[in-house]
Amino acid sequence: MNQSSLQVPAFSLILLIGVSGAGKSTFARRHFLPTEVISSDHCRALITDNENDQSATGDAFELLHWLAAKRLQRRRLTVIDATNVQADARQSLIDLGQQFNCPLVAIVLDMPEQVLNDRRKTRTDRSFADPVLHRQRRDLWLWTRYLEYEGFSTVYRLKSADEVDQIQVVRQS
Ligand code: GDP
Ligand code: MG
Fold it and tell me: From what superkingdom does this record's organism come (predicted)?
């Protein structure tokens, strides 16, 4: 299999960007230590025992930022597993990275709508053919076109499940 490598600085703040079901948490599990990944769903669960409890979103992001800051202070590579689809959702994380002179990396999981719909059909916890998905994908397209100008030093955009399968993350010291 042809593997392409995705280079990241050994100390970096990596934002995974993608709609719900794009494969962010799967990607994070595969390429990073569990302790390197801060997930908004996990932060919600730490507060309410329920990762889908939207009422805890504000507190969850406060916790996520706090944890990220503590790690960056110690120059630990940190991965943010949240949708990060809209520019204003990314801004405070970009500010945090800059505050700690930490290179910012964006990994966009831009999966075709067909793939997302097929995955959703196999899930039992949500209804399939969700029209929300179409809007999320449009948001992704609208709001992630200028990532380099937002302050990311490196931007990777993966556009198919095959491409994601073949990726190897390489840390540069
Ligand atoms: P997230 O919402 O972006 O965190 O997406 P998840 O990582 O939870 O993945 C959503 C669904 O897609 C899960 O059922 C995964 O098993 C599946 N999935 C994620 N990545 C891949 C992949 O690369 N290949 C395949 N076949 N399925 C995947
Ligand atoms: Mg997830």
Answer: Bacteria
* 5-172 classified as CATH 3.30.10.20: no
Give the closest ligand to the alpha carbon of residue 16.
1
DSSP one-letter string for 106-140: EEEE---HHHHHHHHHT-SSS-SS-HHHHHHHHHH
Angle at 142 between CA 137 and CA 145, to 5 degrees: 110
- In angstroms, what is the span from residue 70 Cα to ligand 1's centroid? 29
State the pTM of this model.
Answer: 0.94
Closest ligand 1 atom to 41 CA: 4
Which of 48, 72, 74 lies closest to 59 in space, CA to CA?
A: 48
Q: Where are the domains of the chain?
A: 5-172
Evaluate whether 105 touches 156 at the Cβ level (below 8 Å).
Answer: yes
Residue 21: what pLDDT?
92
